[in-house]
Specification:
The protein has 189 residues and is α+β, with helices and mostly antiparallel strands. It has three helices and nine strands.
Length: 189
Amino acid sequence: MLFRPLPILTVGDPRLRQVAVAVEPRDSGLGAEIGRMLATLEHFRALHGYGRALAAPQVGIGKRVVVMNLGSEPFALLNPEIAWRSSECFEVWDDCLSIPDRIVRVQRNRSVSVAYLDQQFRRWEWARLPSHLAELAQHEIDHLDGILMLDRAWGEGAIRPIQDRAELVEAARPRRGELPAFERPRLVG
């Protein structure tokens, strides 16, 4: 079944500030919502050449769902939560599908572990993510809590125009095919 992309909400839409609710196994529309979210992410990537993840609130779905495409098989994280944070933090330039005209320097934990459910409601843990995935997970989970990268702007000159993206964002991220090794999620229940 092919799904049509949804419109991406942009900064100023009050739905981006709402805290998303947990999904439950009895949510019969969840599969179609995930399909539409993945179609939206792929459509954005085709138009703009970037986009690794999308949180449900960004398309007006008030549920704790994140979809990701890291270059291989796209997947969904249901009810993701940060189970562990490194004490070390770092600064990173962040971009966001819902704030298409700006990039923002933020401070994030250098590594995190994420617990989540898959679409069969099995529990997984993605342990000690490298910084390029840790910052992504933190960004998307922030969306589920109604927090935008603008809220985390760090330091003087932290908000820049999107035209600076290639120089500041892309230059700091690993290229496809150059992703450093990281532990794959493991089934925990």
